[in-house]
Design brief:
Helix content: over 70%
Number of helices: 73
Largest sheet: none
Strand content: under 5%
Shape: elongated
Length: 1468
């Protein structure tokens, strides 16, 4: 717009336009940018017009310029690139505005800007400096005369605290240098200003005390790093591009190397010096010029400073390289001898630090570099060979302590530099003085400083050992003795502890490094003095972790010194070595009172301690067993340390592994003892090998692998303990120490045997790791197995061992295959782990000897329960493979132990899948070895579980039940297992008193140990979980299973009778499961109905019902069942024989078509009628009489003989059964079978007719009547005699208290009276008195039959009377009454004087006595009526006869009866 209006219009509008534009700067940045562009156009139009003079005076522009100046410093913190671009454009527009003004009013503008720079307002100062920097090259000619004024203005700003101002000022100085404004002292001042800011760091602004000031405008913050970068670039730019600055920079830059405040700028300064040297314009005069400036540092000062500053190999700006370059350039300043050495050595050192990335990967690079620096300095001093110069350098080192803070690592290196220098000095007073200074300047509270001091003392001790030891002793004696320390200790325990810790730590380190660096020939006495007295123990009272680390390191150094002495040919034992080990183990423990020990520091302490232990166990004398075990116990637990922080834990584990290897290599007298030690250590590591934590498994495997490598080296390969091969100092020492006592023995004795390695136990520990989820663990574990078998194959074989060459070749082939697998694992991590594992297992199958295989199988329990599921599955797979391929080699004992291990693994398996897999392994063992042995162990374990556990509440189910399921579902084992369980049941005794053949004192413990229950549970599981396979096996063994279950019913019912109901319930459950399995539902209903009824007859009837059900439902199985049961009758257990007899007695009924089997059954039944069990006897008899009718005639005689024998049985129930069976058999028995024993039967039946048992009396009377059918022909008379003998009893029991007895007697009389051939008796059978049950009718019958006896059988009356009188003592009142009335009836009707003389008085007296004394009413009533009969009788002779004593009469009657019985038996 300004270009379109006239000059006059523009001039008139300026007073309004300028303020308007300036007001726009209060808006946002975009509007301010537009305002600046407009202002620039306005200034161009008003000041640089070609048509006239400027329209605005400079005074008119002052406000505008003052407004624009702060705009320069505006910074937008937004990260938006567009906003940043607008800010930069606005900055450029502002500079163009100032340039426009400067072109018109240069002097005025210069003064304006200089004045603004001197104002103590940061935005104005910053803006002024920026504008000056921008305009100086453009207005150089106009401002040339203003140079002094500009220089003074810049000088006045050198102390400005603002970093932003300093940055702008540094940029302005560089611009001034480019225009040669920097000359003389002012130039050096400005160069020093740049150097000072090159020394700034991000975390430390040097000596700057910069306060954050709040300004009105938003000023962009400048960091120390940005300011440093600007100064570094500016200084390099000045050095490289402005030749005129060379005279200012050289040799002034050398002065910049020494000051402490410029330490951070040394890299840049050295680079500038190198650039000056490269671009030098006056050759070697540069060095000569140095000598003409007295304020330039001397060569000693430069070397002392630069060598120490070499410390950090990773320092920024490649500081070590820059310093080494400068040293090489300045070599002519130093003694001439060193120049050539530096020309050769410095390039090597530069090469080491050239690749910083590699150095960062090396944790030991700092120590290596420090050692290189010290060696560099030591060799340089050797080349210099100027004692005065060296001592002068030492003085400089002493002065340079002021250049470094105590916490600066450079101070530690300075100690070492001074120490190596003092090593080269022979002046003892000088050395002593510098040692004192060194100790005073050292801050031993700083660990790095303390370590540097200790190393320095060690370096000095290499030449001045006694001087150093004197100093150390003096320090030790004065610990805590200063006045200040005593006063502070009174007020603060922490001060006393920390101060004491620092001093003791420093002293310990100094003693240690003194021993390390001192000559080996002179340290023995010093070390013995230190260890043998209490000097060292005084250093152990430390608490801080760093102090502990220092003391432990000192002890480590003492041990290293002993080892170094041995290597140099001056060996000596370390006295009290075990005490030192105890010190270390104590120091590495956690101190409960130590409140400032963090976890990381504790781990570092422990890592250092383990390293020290490694050193001490490697020196003489050898470890004692107690010390070795103490060390192992204290250190092995570190395998469980958490993995973080990795940088601290990894060294700890590496040191631990090294320690274990050292213990292995330095302990033991020969190979055998080392093998024992190896196994001891490996077994202690096993807990980590099988840990669920991955890093623990990896550490354990690494340790084992390293130990095996070392063991192989020392015991097999002929290496020394430290890994050297051939002739070496170590070998000589070991040969002398270890094998001194075995030099004359054969190697087979010195070396371990293969058996000593216990390969079987080791293999099962590491084999699961070959299937680990971690690929590194898999690889290492495979290498472990390879090492184990490589060692074993390298060892001598026992004398007399029979190993064929084929076996040896096969073993080496398997080992080669294993090594191929390892090679694959190393090169190809993508290979299928399962394939690798299979190949490993295949190799092991060949490599393991028989004994090792057995040990592997015996110890498999832990492996099968490995915390890593994949590993556990691999172990199971391996066991199955071992058993499948080599199971035939196992003995019964081996199989039993292996089964126990597998069962243990099953019990402890928490994962259902793993349990199933383990059961599969058990099945495989049974299939490939001896099934019965495996089954026995499973059943035994199940029995123990039943007794000791509540198996119904086991978490995850009962493992043994799962085992039963597995066997029942196995195609091969199901039948075998079922048969085995049946066999186990058949061989299981039950309880006390079960068999009469067993003494009551002998009590079996099979119920207590659960064997019976285990077998029953096994059957239940088999029938319920076997599926189709189990059902097929059950059907196949139906007869044996049913028979055994039936027999066990008897056993369990016996237990139920003794109060143990549980076995019966379990058996019924198993029986029900069997029924369900085979589909016998009807039998299941019978069991459900009557199974738990424990009464004797009820469970026997239950078995009979089952037998009947089977006979109907499965007739084809009857013969097989009967064959099993016939054999079972010979078992020793009573209740099982009873069950067998019960079943057989029922099966006999259905044996019509069994043929020879029936004959065998009859034979067995007849044999067992003499069984000790009454139940067996009667059941066998019952079975005999149930022989089918088509076969009974064949066995009638045999059966009758059995009945005859059992009629005399001692057990009443057997007698009753015999009488009952006699009744049954007589219905179909032929005459020729009965006739031979007719009379014997009659006699035995008569004996039973007086039984108290009602059924016995009834059946015996009935059987006697049945015998009457056979009392014909030749036997008629003899049988009639038996009838006469039995007739009184029949008559008396005709009115028995029991109706059944009355009926039997009535029927028997009907059958025997015809044989007596007396019509009168036959007539009585139809009378009312005979048929009636009334008492009066019966008495009428007695009178009637008495008449018949007197009339037709007078000769028998005496016998009848004797039997009747004997019945007076019968146990039944009714029979007594019957006898009284019957005898009275005979006496009242008889006219036989003989009869009356014998019995009348006796009967009469008894009637009188019983009438008054009998407690039974029927007896008293009958006595009364009987007396009436006697009194009415006209035949009585009682008045004329002398009544004999009743007791005598009764005795005579008894004698008479006995005589008669004996006569009858003689006749028969």
């Amino acid at each position: 717009m300004v270009g379109l209006i006239t000059r006059t219009q523009l001039k008139a509008a300026l007073p309004r336009l300028v303020p308007t534009i300036l007001d726009l700067y209060k808006k946002d940045q975009e509007i301010a940018f537009l305002a600046t562009c407009s202002l620039h156009n306005l200034l161009n139009a008003s000041l640089l017009s070609e048509t006239g003079p400027p329209m605005l005076d400079f005074e008119d522009l002052t406000l505008t310029l003052s407004t624009l100046l702060p705009v320069v410093s505006i910074n937008n913190d937004s990260k938006d690139q567009s906003d940043f671009s607008i800010g930069l454009k606005m900055y450029n527009e502002v500079q163009r505005c100032f340039l426009t003004v400067g072109l018109v009013y240069p002097d005025d503008l210069f003064l304006f800007l200089v004045n603004k720079c001197r104002v103590k307002e940061e935005p104005l100062t910053f803006g002024g400096l920026c504008v000056l920097k921008h305009l100086l090259p453009r207005l150089f000619e106009a401002w040339h005369s203003k140079i002094p004024l500009l220089v003074e203005a810049v000088k006045s700003l050198l102390e400005e605290p603002s970093l932003g101002v300093r940055k702008a000022l540094s940029e302005l100085i560089v611009v001034m240098a480019s225009h040669c404004y920097l000359v003389g002292s002012s130039g050096e001042l400005f160069i020093e200003y740049l150097v000072r800011h090159c020394a700034l760091t991000d975390n430390n602004r040097g000596d700057l005390d910069i306060l954050n000031k709040r300004v009105e405008m938003k000023i962009r913050a400048v960091t120390p790093g940005e300011l440093r970068t600007v100064c570094e670039k500016g200084l390099l730019l000045v050095t490289i591009t402005i030749p005129e600055m060379e005279h200012v920079l050289w040799p002034f830059l050398l002065r910049m190397i020494i000051p402490r405040s410029y330490t951070g700028a040394v890299a840049t300064v050295c680079r500038c010096i190198s650039e000056l040297w490269r671009h030098r314009s006056y050759g070697n005069d540069m060095l000569s010029e140095c000598k003409t400036h007295p304020d330039i540092p001397t060569a000693e000062e430069l070397l002392a400073r630069l060598v120490v500053l070499l410390h950090d190999p990773l320092a920024r700006e490649q500081l070590p390289t820059q310093i080494l370059t400068v040293l090489c350039l300045l070599a002519p300043l130093f003694p001439k001898n060193v120049n050539l050495f530096w020309q050769d050595e410095i390039p090597k050192m530069k090469a080491y630090v050239s690749d910083t990335e590699d150095l960062k990967q090396d944790p030991s690079c700092q120590d290596t570099w420090d050692d290189m620096i010290i060696n560099f300095l030591a060799e340089s001093l050797d080349f210099i060979q100027d004692a005065d110069w060296v001592m002068s350098l030492g003085n400089v080192f002493a002065k340079h302590y002021e250049l470094y803070t105590s916490d600066d690592e450079h101070a530690a290196l300075l100690h070492r530099c001074l120490g190596i220098l003092l090593q080269k000095v022979n002046d003892r007073a000088y050395v002593s003085d510098k040692i004192d200074l060194m100790y005073k300047k050292a801050n031993i509270a700083i660990p790095t400083n303390r370590l540097g001091l200790a190393k320095a003392m060690g370096l000095v001790a290499a030449s001045h050992l006694d001087t150093v030891l004197e100093k150390l002793k003096d320090i030790l004696d004065n610990v805590g003795q200063s006045i200040f320390q005593r006063i502070m200790a009174l007020f603060s325990d922490s001060f006393r502890t920390e101060d004491s810790d620092d001093i003791h730590a420093a002293l310990a380190l100094m003693y240690g490094y003194a021993a390390k660096y001192a000559p080996s020939t002179v340290i023995e006495a010093r070390i013995n003095a230190l260890v043998g007295t209490n000097m060292l123990s005084r250093l152990l009272n430390v608490h801080h972790p760093r102090a502990k680390q220092a003391v432990i390191t000192a002890i480590d150094l003492l041990g290293s010194a002993v080892i170094n002495a041995a290597e140099t040919g001056a060996p000596f034992p370390l006295k009290r070595r075990d005490v030192l080990l105890d010190y270390i183990l104590t120091l590495m423990g956690r101190d409960d009172n130590d409140g400032f020990a963090d976890y990381n520091e504790l781990l570092r302490t422990q890592a250092i301690a383990i390293s020290a232990c490694t050193t001490l166990v490697s020196v003489e004398p050898k470890l004692t067993v107690e010390t070795r075990n103490h060390v192992l116990k204290a250190t092995l637990g570190f395998f469980a340390v958490p993995n973080d922080p990795v940088d601290v834990v990894n060294p700890l584990i590496e040191n631990l592994i090294t320690l274990l290897c050292a213990i292995l290599l330095t302990s033991g007298e020969d190979g055998r003892s080392r093998a024992e030690l190896l196994l001891l250590m490996l077994r202690q590591i096993d807990q980590f090998i099988s840990s669920p934590i991955e890093y623990q498994r990896k550490r354990g495997c690494l340790a084992v692998h390293e130990m095996l490598l070392k063991f192989r080296v020392i015991c097999v390969s002929g290496h020394c303990a430290l890994g050297c091969q051939g002739s070496c100092a170590h070998n000589k020492q070991i040969d002398r120490i270890v094998f001194g006592n075995f030099s004359k023995l054969p190697s087979a004795f010195v070396l371990p045997s293969r058996e000593a390695l216990c390969l079987g136990d080791r293999v099962i520990v590491y084999l699961p790791r070959c299937a680990d989820v971690n690929s590194e663990v898999r690889k290492i574990s495979a290498e472990i197995l390879d090492q184990l078998f490589s060692i074993s194959l390298s060892l001598p074989r026992p004398a007399g061992s029979l190993i064929s060459s084929e076996d040896i070749e096969l073993s080496y082939s398997a080992l080669s295959s294993l090594e191929d697998v390892i090679a694959i694992l190393r090169n190809d991590t993508s290979i299928d782990p399962s394939e690798v594992f299979n190949r490993i297992v295949s190799s092991l199958c060949i490599l393991l000897t028989k004994d090792e295989l057995v040990a592997t199988l015996h110890g498999c329990s832990v492996a099968l329960n490995d915390k890593i599921k994949q590993s556990a599955e691999g172990a199971i797979q391996a066991i199955v493979e071992f058993v499948s391929r080599r199971g035939r080699e196992l003995s019964e004992f081996d199989i039993s132990r292996t089964t126990q291990s597998l069962i243990s693994a099953t019990v402890h398996a928490s994962d259902k899948h793993l349990r199933v897999e383990t059961l599969g392994a058990i099945s495989s063992l049974a299939e490939n070895t001896s099934p019965s042995t495996v089954f026995d162990e499973v059943l035994a374990t199940a029995g123990k579980d039943i007794v000791s556990k509540d198996i119904s509440r086991l978490r995850g189910g009962w493992p043994m039940q799962d085992a039963f399921y597995a066997f029942s579902q196995h195609m091969v084992l199901s039948v075998t297992f079922l048969e085995h369980v049946m066999s186990a049941l058949s061989q299981t005794p039950i309880v006390k008193g079960d068999a009469y053949r067993v003494e009551d004192s002998q009590v079996d413990n099979n119920i207590e140990n659960g064997n019976l229950q285990a077998a029953i549970f096994a059957l239940t599981a088999f029938f319920r979980g076997g599926g189709k396979i189990g059902k097929r096996a059950a059907e196949q063994n139906y007869a044996s299973v049913l028979s055994e279950l039936t027999l066990q019913l008897g056993s369990c019912h016996s237990l139920a009778n003794s109060g143990q109901q549980e076995p019966l319930r379990n058996l019924l459950t198993a029986f029900q499961a069997f029924c369900e399995c085979v589909g016998d539902l009807e039998m299941g209903k019978i069991l459900a109905r009557d199974g738990e009824l424990s009464e004797n007859e009820r469970w026997i009837n239950l078995i009979g019902d089952i037998a009947g059900c089977i006979s109907i439902k499965r007739p084809k199985e009857v013969q097989n069942i009967c064959l099993v049961l016939t054999k079972s009758l010979d078992r020793p257990l009573k209740y099982q024989r009873e069950a067998a007899a019960a079943a057989l007695s029922e099966f006999v009924r259905y044996s019509g078509g069994l043929g020879s089997c029936l004959e065998q059954m009859v034979e067995v039944l007849c044999r067992h009628v003499s069984d000790e069990s009454s139940t067996v006897r009667r059941l066998c008899l019952r079975g005999l009489v149930q022989i089918p009718s088509i076969h009974i005639l064949k066995y009638t005689s045999q059966v009758l003989g059995v009945i005859l024998a059992l009629l005399d049985d001692s057990d009443e129930s057997v007698q009753l059964t015999a009488v009952s069976c006699l009744l049954m058999i007589l219905e179909s028995s032929p005459d020729d079978a009965v006739e031979p024993i007719l009379l014997n039967l009659s006699v035995r039946l008569r004996n039973l007719q007086a039984s108290m048992n009602v059924k016995m009396r009834a059946n015996s009377f009935a059987a006697f009547g049945a015998l009457s059918s056979y009392g014909i022909g030749a036997l008629k008379d003899a049988f009639v005699e038996q009838v006469h003998a039995a007739l009184p009893c029949l008559v008396l029991h005709l009115h028995d208290e029991d109706a059944g007895v009355r009926l039997a007697c009535r029927n028997t009389l009907k059958r025997v009276f015809p044989s007596m051939e007396i019509e009168g008796l036959l007539a009585l059978l139809n009378t009312q008195s005979f048929l009636s049950d009334h008492r009066s009718d019966y008495e009428d019958f007695l009178r009637d039959i008495a008449k018949q006896f007197i009339q037709h059988l007078p000769s028998r009356v005496d016998t009848y009377m004797a039997a009747t009188v004997q019945a007076f003592d019968a146990p039944w009142p009714a029979i007594q009454a019957n006898a009284i009335y019957f005898s009275s009836s005979i006496l009242s009707l008889s006219d036989n004087h003989h009869i009356l003389a014998i019995y009348h008085a006796q009967v009469f007296g008894m009637l009188v006595g019983d009438l008054s004394r009998s407690p039974d009413a029927i007896v008293r009533a009958t006595c009364s009526s009987a007396l009436g009969l006697l009194l009415k009788s006209s035949n009585t002779l009682s008045w004329r006869a002398v009544s004999p004593d009743r007791s005598d009469s009764t005795s005579r009657n008894h004698d008479l009866e006995s005589t008669q019985n004996q006569q009858i038996q003689t006749e028969t």
